[in-house]
Amino acid sequence: MKMNFARILLAVMMLGHILTYAQKNTENIDGVYKVSDAAFVINKNKTFLVIAYGTLIKGTWSIKKDLIELKPQNPDAKFYVYARKNPNIKTGMRIGFSGDKIGNSGILVGEFPNKMQPLFNEDANCFDFPYVHVFKEKPATLSLLEEQNYENEMGVEIPKLIYNFPTGDYNDFIVQHMQDGLYHNDFIFKMTKDGSSLVDDSGKPLRKSTVKEAFPHEEELKFMEGAFNRAFDADYKLVNNAYNTHDDMDQEIDLEYYKYDAQKNVYVNPAVPAKQLNYKSEDYHYNEVLMKFDKIKGTSQSQVAVKPLTNSVFTAKCNR
Fold it and tell me: According to the model, what pLDDT value does residue 140 have?
Protein backbone atom coordinates (compact mmCIF):
# COMPACT_ATOMS: atom_id res chain seq x y z
CA MET A 1 0.00 0.00 0.00
CA LYS A 2 1.60 3.22 -1.07
CA MET A 3 1.63 5.75 1.71
CA ASN A 4 2.34 9.49 1.51
CA PHE A 5 1.99 11.01 4.96
CA ALA A 6 3.81 14.34 4.61
CA ARG A 7 0.76 16.34 3.52
CA ILE A 8 -1.65 14.67 5.90
CA LEU A 9 0.64 15.26 8.87
CA LEU A 10 0.95 18.91 7.91
CA ALA A 11 -2.84 19.17 7.82
CA VAL A 12 -3.06 17.62 11.29
CA MET A 13 -0.49 20.06 12.64
CA MET A 14 -2.55 22.97 11.31
CA LEU A 15 -5.39 22.03 13.65
CA GLY A 16 -3.40 23.13 16.68
CA HIS A 17 -2.47 21.36 19.86
CA ILE A 18 -3.62 22.55 23.28
CA LEU A 19 -5.28 24.97 25.72
CA THR A 20 -8.83 25.63 24.56
CA TYR A 21 -11.25 24.81 27.37
CA ALA A 22 -14.24 22.60 26.65
CA GLN A 23 -17.02 21.03 28.65
CA LYS A 24 -17.07 17.26 28.85
CA ASN A 25 -20.32 16.92 26.92
CA THR A 26 -18.93 15.42 23.72
CA GLU A 27 -22.00 13.58 22.45
CA ASN A 28 -21.87 15.51 19.18
CA ILE A 29 -18.13 15.51 18.57
CA ASP A 30 -18.49 12.75 15.96
CA GLY A 31 -18.59 13.74 12.32
CA VAL A 32 -16.37 14.34 9.31
CA TYR A 33 -14.02 17.32 9.40
CA LYS A 34 -12.42 18.56 6.18
CA VAL A 35 -8.98 20.17 6.43
CA SER A 36 -7.25 20.99 3.17
CA ASP A 37 -7.64 17.77 1.12
CA ALA A 38 -7.92 15.52 4.16
CA ALA A 39 -11.05 14.09 5.78
CA PHE A 40 -11.02 13.31 9.51
CA VAL A 41 -13.75 10.82 10.38
CA ILE A 42 -14.48 10.88 14.13
CA ASN A 43 -16.81 8.02 15.08
CA LYS A 44 -19.04 7.66 18.14
CA ASN A 45 -17.47 4.30 18.94
CA LYS A 46 -14.20 6.09 19.83
CA THR A 47 -12.44 5.22 16.58
CA PHE A 48 -11.21 7.58 13.88
CA LEU A 49 -10.04 7.40 10.30
CA VAL A 50 -8.02 9.94 8.33
CA ILE A 51 -8.31 9.80 4.54
CA ALA A 52 -6.11 11.81 2.18
CA TYR A 53 -4.15 11.30 -1.04
CA GLY A 54 -4.74 7.55 -1.00
CA THR A 55 -3.45 7.56 2.58
CA LEU A 56 -5.16 6.07 5.63
CA ILE A 57 -4.53 6.59 9.33
CA LYS A 58 -6.70 4.65 11.75
CA GLY A 59 -6.92 4.62 15.51
CA THR A 60 -8.91 5.42 18.64
CA TRP A 61 -9.71 8.69 20.41
CA SER A 62 -10.39 9.75 23.99
CA ILE A 63 -11.10 12.88 26.02
CA LYS A 64 -8.41 13.87 28.51
CA LYS A 65 -8.97 16.97 30.57
CA ASP A 66 -10.57 19.25 28.00
CA LEU A 67 -8.91 17.97 24.86
CA ILE A 68 -9.54 15.20 22.39
CA GLU A 69 -6.55 12.92 21.80
CA LEU A 70 -6.25 10.70 18.76
CA LYS A 71 -4.03 7.64 19.12
CA PRO A 72 -3.00 6.17 15.73
CA GLN A 73 -2.76 2.42 15.28
CA ASN A 74 0.97 2.10 14.68
CA PRO A 75 2.59 -1.10 13.41
CA ASP A 76 3.51 -3.43 16.28
CA ALA A 77 6.62 -4.62 14.42
CA LYS A 78 8.95 -3.40 11.68
CA PHE A 79 8.46 -6.63 9.74
CA TYR A 80 5.47 -8.88 9.08
CA VAL A 81 6.12 -12.26 7.49
CA TYR A 82 3.65 -14.38 5.51
CA ALA A 83 4.38 -17.93 4.36
CA ARG A 84 3.14 -20.86 2.27
CA LYS A 85 4.30 -24.27 1.09
CA ASN A 86 5.25 -24.07 -2.57
CA PRO A 87 5.35 -27.51 -4.22
CA ASN A 88 7.41 -26.11 -7.11
CA ILE A 89 10.33 -25.21 -4.82
CA LYS A 90 12.38 -28.35 -4.14
CA THR A 91 15.29 -26.84 -2.19
CA GLY A 92 15.97 -23.52 -0.52
CA MET A 93 13.31 -20.86 -0.28
CA ARG A 94 11.83 -17.89 -2.10
CA ILE A 95 11.09 -14.50 -0.55
CA GLY A 96 9.17 -11.56 -1.96
CA PHE A 97 10.02 -8.26 -0.25
CA SER A 98 7.43 -5.48 -0.12
CA GLY A 99 7.08 -2.04 1.41
CA ASP A 100 7.51 1.58 0.38
CA LYS A 101 11.10 2.86 0.54
CA ILE A 102 12.35 -0.63 1.28
CA GLY A 103 15.47 0.03 -0.78
CA ASN A 104 16.62 2.88 1.46
CA SER A 105 16.11 1.24 4.83
CA GLY A 106 19.36 -0.59 5.61
CA ILE A 107 17.68 -3.98 5.97
CA LEU A 108 19.63 -7.15 6.75
CA VAL A 109 18.13 -10.57 6.10
CA GLY A 110 19.28 -14.15 6.65
CA GLU A 111 20.40 -16.47 9.43
CA PHE A 112 21.38 -14.70 12.66
CA PRO A 113 24.14 -13.83 13.43
CA ASN A 114 26.75 -14.84 10.85
CA LYS A 115 24.76 -15.34 7.65
CA MET A 116 22.89 -12.09 7.31
CA GLN A 117 23.32 -9.94 4.23
CA PRO A 118 22.17 -6.50 3.10
CA LEU A 119 18.95 -6.50 1.14
CA PHE A 120 20.36 -3.86 -1.26
CA ASN A 121 23.80 -2.55 -2.16
CA GLU A 122 24.97 0.64 -0.46
CA ASP A 123 24.57 2.90 -3.52
CA ALA A 124 21.24 1.47 -4.63
CA ASN A 125 19.35 4.06 -6.67
CA CYS A 126 17.16 2.16 -9.15
CA PHE A 127 14.18 0.24 -7.85
CA ASP A 128 11.67 -1.83 -9.74
CA PHE A 129 9.10 -3.62 -7.60
CA PRO A 130 8.38 -6.34 -6.81
CA TYR A 131 11.62 -7.78 -5.43
CA VAL A 132 11.67 -11.58 -5.31
CA HIS A 133 14.72 -13.74 -4.63
CA VAL A 134 15.32 -17.50 -4.51
CA PHE A 135 17.77 -18.52 -1.77
CA LYS A 136 19.70 -21.77 -2.17
CA GLU A 137 19.47 -22.52 1.55
CA LYS A 138 16.61 -22.22 4.03
CA PRO A 139 17.54 -21.51 7.66
CA ALA A 140 15.43 -22.87 10.50
CA THR A 141 14.84 -19.27 11.55
CA LEU A 142 14.66 -16.26 9.26
CA SER A 143 16.04 -13.10 10.89
CA LEU A 144 15.43 -9.50 9.85
CA LEU A 145 16.69 -6.20 11.15
CA GLU A 146 16.83 -2.60 10.01
CA GLU A 147 20.06 -0.75 10.65
CA GLN A 148 19.27 2.95 10.63
CA ASN A 149 18.15 5.92 12.69
CA TYR A 150 15.17 4.74 14.73
CA GLU A 151 13.39 8.05 15.16
CA ASN A 152 11.26 9.24 12.28
CA GLU A 153 10.62 12.79 11.11
CA MET A 154 7.78 13.21 13.61
CA GLY A 155 10.00 12.24 16.53
CA VAL A 156 8.46 8.81 17.13
CA GLU A 157 10.99 6.52 18.78
CA ILE A 158 11.01 3.06 17.21
CA PRO A 159 12.57 0.15 19.17
CA LYS A 160 15.81 -1.31 17.85
CA LEU A 161 14.98 -4.98 17.47
CA ILE A 162 15.95 -8.09 15.58
CA TYR A 163 12.94 -10.08 14.37
CA ASN A 164 13.09 -13.87 14.10
CA PHE A 165 10.57 -16.05 12.26
CA PRO A 166 10.59 -19.88 12.22
CA THR A 167 10.47 -21.24 8.67
CA GLY A 168 9.09 -24.67 9.57
CA ASP A 169 7.67 -26.52 6.57
CA TYR A 170 7.26 -23.30 4.59
CA ASN A 171 9.52 -22.42 1.67
CA ASP A 172 7.80 -19.40 0.11
CA PHE A 173 7.58 -16.10 1.99
CA ILE A 174 6.49 -12.49 1.82
CA VAL A 175 8.39 -10.04 4.03
CA GLN A 176 6.46 -6.81 4.55
CA HIS A 177 8.55 -3.90 5.78
CA MET A 178 6.82 -1.13 7.74
CA GLN A 179 8.59 2.14 6.98
CA ASP A 180 9.21 4.79 9.62
CA GLY A 181 6.62 7.11 8.05
CA LEU A 182 3.85 4.73 9.16
CA TYR A 183 4.51 5.48 12.84
CA HIS A 184 2.74 8.50 14.35
CA ASN A 185 2.60 10.33 17.64
CA ASP A 186 -0.74 10.92 19.30
CA PHE A 187 -2.58 13.94 17.90
CA ILE A 188 -4.25 16.48 20.20
CA PHE A 189 -7.13 18.59 18.93
CA LYS A 190 -8.77 21.73 20.22
CA MET A 191 -12.53 21.67 20.72
CA THR A 192 -15.27 24.25 21.05
CA LYS A 193 -16.29 25.19 24.58
CA ASP A 194 -19.37 23.00 24.44
CA GLY A 195 -17.27 20.05 23.27
CA SER A 196 -19.29 19.50 20.11
CA SER A 197 -16.74 20.33 17.42
CA LEU A 198 -13.07 20.81 16.59
CA VAL A 199 -11.65 24.28 16.08
CA ASP A 200 -8.91 25.90 14.03
CA ASP A 201 -5.96 27.86 15.43
CA SER A 202 -8.10 30.96 15.89
CA GLY A 203 -10.71 29.08 17.91
CA LYS A 204 -13.27 29.09 15.10
CA PRO A 205 -15.25 25.84 14.77
CA LEU A 206 -14.27 23.78 11.76
CA ARG A 207 -16.92 22.97 9.22
CA LYS A 208 -18.12 19.43 9.70
CA SER A 209 -20.67 17.09 8.23
CA THR A 210 -22.21 13.81 9.23
CA VAL A 211 -20.76 10.54 8.00
CA LYS A 212 -23.84 9.98 5.82
CA GLU A 213 -23.41 13.42 4.24
CA ALA A 214 -19.71 12.95 3.53
CA PHE A 215 -20.04 9.31 2.46
CA PRO A 216 -23.53 8.84 1.00
CA HIS A 217 -22.51 5.37 -0.14
CA GLU A 218 -22.03 3.55 3.15
CA GLU A 219 -19.98 0.78 1.57
CA GLU A 220 -17.33 3.32 0.51
CA LEU A 221 -16.27 4.09 4.08
CA LYS A 222 -16.42 0.41 5.06
CA PHE A 223 -14.11 -0.35 2.16
CA MET A 224 -11.66 2.32 3.36
CA GLU A 225 -11.53 0.82 6.83
CA GLY A 226 -11.14 -2.64 5.38
CA ALA A 227 -8.30 -1.41 3.17
CA PHE A 228 -6.37 -0.30 6.25
CA ASN A 229 -6.86 -3.68 7.91
CA ARG A 230 -5.81 -5.57 4.78
CA ALA A 231 -2.63 -3.52 4.51
CA PHE A 232 -1.56 -3.44 8.16
CA ASP A 233 -3.36 -6.14 10.08
CA ALA A 234 -4.09 -8.96 7.64
CA ASP A 235 -4.17 -12.64 8.54
CA TYR A 236 -3.05 -13.51 5.03
CA LYS A 237 -1.86 -12.00 1.75
CA LEU A 238 -3.00 -12.83 -1.75
CA VAL A 239 -0.56 -12.39 -4.62
CA ASN A 240 -0.30 -13.51 -8.20
CA ASN A 241 2.70 -15.23 -9.77
CA ALA A 242 4.48 -11.88 -10.17
CA TYR A 243 4.10 -11.27 -6.40
CA ASN A 244 1.93 -8.25 -7.04
CA THR A 245 -0.26 -7.84 -3.98
CA HIS A 246 -3.89 -6.84 -3.91
CA ASP A 247 -4.33 -5.79 -0.31
CA ASP A 248 -4.46 -2.04 -0.71
CA MET A 249 -6.85 0.61 -2.01
CA ASP A 250 -7.46 -1.10 -5.35
CA GLN A 251 -9.86 -3.88 -4.49
CA GLU A 252 -10.85 -6.65 -2.12
CA ILE A 253 -10.70 -10.23 -3.35
CA ASP A 254 -13.11 -12.81 -1.92
CA LEU A 255 -11.70 -16.34 -2.01
CA GLU A 256 -15.22 -17.76 -1.88
CA TYR A 257 -15.37 -17.14 -5.61
CA TYR A 258 -12.20 -19.15 -6.22
CA LYS A 259 -11.51 -22.88 -6.35
CA TYR A 260 -8.62 -24.32 -4.37
CA ASP A 261 -6.08 -26.42 -6.31
CA ALA A 262 -4.47 -28.60 -3.62
CA GLN A 263 -1.82 -30.01 -5.95
CA LYS A 264 -0.41 -26.59 -6.82
CA ASN A 265 -1.52 -24.93 -3.57
CA VAL A 266 -3.14 -22.01 -5.39
CA TYR A 267 -6.60 -20.56 -5.85
CA VAL A 268 -7.98 -20.39 -9.38
CA ASN A 269 -10.96 -18.69 -10.95
CA PRO A 270 -13.38 -21.54 -11.82
CA ALA A 271 -15.01 -19.39 -14.49
CA VAL A 272 -11.83 -19.56 -16.58
CA PRO A 273 -11.33 -22.75 -18.64
CA ALA A 274 -8.40 -24.80 -17.32
CA LYS A 275 -6.50 -24.53 -20.60
CA GLN A 276 -6.65 -20.74 -20.42
CA LEU A 277 -5.25 -20.43 -16.90
CA ASN A 278 -1.76 -18.93 -16.92
CA TYR A 279 0.11 -20.05 -13.80
CA LYS A 280 3.23 -18.12 -14.82
CA SER A 281 1.65 -14.81 -15.78
CA GLU A 282 3.70 -11.71 -14.98
CA ASP A 283 0.75 -9.40 -15.62
CA TYR A 284 0.25 -7.03 -12.69
CA HIS A 285 -3.55 -7.31 -12.84
CA TYR A 286 -3.79 -11.05 -13.49
CA ASN A 287 -5.99 -12.43 -10.69
CA GLU A 288 -7.14 -15.72 -12.17
CA VAL A 289 -4.46 -17.65 -10.23
CA LEU A 290 -3.59 -16.51 -6.71
CA MET A 291 -1.22 -17.69 -4.01
CA LYS A 292 -2.32 -17.40 -0.36
CA PHE A 293 0.34 -16.59 2.25
CA ASP A 294 -0.63 -16.94 5.91
CA LYS A 295 0.80 -14.66 8.57
CA ILE A 296 3.29 -16.39 10.84
CA LYS A 297 4.28 -15.37 14.34
CA GLY A 298 7.83 -14.45 15.23
CA THR A 299 9.84 -13.24 18.17
CA SER A 300 12.05 -10.21 18.71
CA GLN A 301 15.19 -9.40 20.65
CA SER A 302 17.24 -6.33 21.36
CA GLN A 303 19.45 -5.42 18.43
CA VAL A 304 23.13 -6.28 18.71
CA ALA A 305 26.05 -5.61 16.39
CA VAL A 306 25.97 -7.89 13.35
CA LYS A 307 28.71 -8.22 10.78
CA PRO A 308 26.83 -8.79 7.51
CA LEU A 309 28.07 -10.65 4.48
CA THR A 310 29.57 -8.42 1.79
CA ASN A 311 27.21 -9.36 -1.04
CA SER A 312 23.68 -7.98 -1.10
CA VAL A 313 20.54 -9.89 -2.04
CA PHE A 314 19.66 -7.32 -4.74
CA THR A 315 21.79 -4.89 -6.71
CA ALA A 316 19.88 -1.80 -7.72
CA LYS A 317 22.19 0.62 -9.50
CA CYS A 318 21.56 2.80 -12.52
CA ASN A 319 24.12 2.71 -15.31
CA ARG A 320 25.07 6.36 -15.52
Answer: 97
